[in-house]
Amino acid sequence: MGKIKISRALFPALAAAAMFTVTCAFAGSVLITKTAVTDSAGAARTFFSSSEKINLRIESYCSAAYSPDRIYYKFYIKNPSGAQVFYHDSNSTEGNVGAGAASLRNIPMSFYNGPGLYRFRAELVVAGSVVAFDESKSFTVYSPVITLTYPYDGVTDLLDKPVTFRWVASGATKYRVRVADERSFYNPLWTLETPASYAQYPLNPPEDRQRLSGGTQYYWKVVGLSSDGSRVASSDIYAFTLKKEALSVSYRNLAVTGLEYDPMSSPPNKVIVKAEVSNMGNQSETAVKLNLFVGGILSGFTQINSLMPSQKTPAVFEFGPVHQENIIVTAMIEAADENAKDNVLTKSFSVDLPE
Known about the structure:
By secondary structure, the chain is mainly beta. It is 5% helix and 54% strand. The strands form six sheets. Strands 10, 12, 13, 15, 16 and 17 form a six-stranded mixed sheet that branches. The protein has a five-stranded mixed sheet with strand order 2-8-7-4-5.
């Protein structure tokens, strides 16, 4: 049988082809099966405060062993403008058949450079080449903001029974409300932790000193907490005074019953949101003030001149510019009535920003 001769000039080309074949084969044998962005307690979330810490995780599966090379996990975070603001690449697992994973825990938000949508990019690297990537996880980061909305600072002759405290906020997992009879809050009368944006003072507190008296000035404030209980934000201190004789003569109930994003919006400079206000009480209402908050910050208000029982009326707000793809919008009626829960409505909207 004759011998086949191979020219020495072909050796480099054959070697390059062999290397290309191995790399492509491995590129199809390792996959990213899951990525996750969680808070410091391990709970998956899409909204974070800039003062919190986050965890990142990449899970993989290798269907064909490739030893002695290792699988390297690369973690990236991109800011709302698409620029890379975080990078980590020192985690790796052996290139054996089976599942693998790498995670980073308690990452401070030192990469934060403005509110908006941040994106987590995960990569798997073998022999210096990216063999798999995933960029499906995004999360919104806000600067912690707490704005007290009711009772207003310095209000007197308050008739509420029970007294309902309301605020608008972003960037915290839960809130600690405190009421005191002195501004230092050294020995508060009442404290409550809640994930909601309102709280009602108990009608029948267990201690006599906790009973609110008409004509006495009281103080209240709200502190924002992360999932691990760390303080991330604090409000101003507001004062209020109850009327000495509080009588309820009729049923008053104003409600925000709708909040929608208007498709006629032209972001980033023109965003339109429509709210609906309903009179669900048994008396006519006049001069009803409706506030709009975007990302916890007051962005507009309107006044409804009159509203009969069972009547509904729309309110249109236009604001801008908007710099993030996800916005949290809150519509809140500035009034005291029998049902505090429906005086405020919060929704998250996606905004199509131009390229």
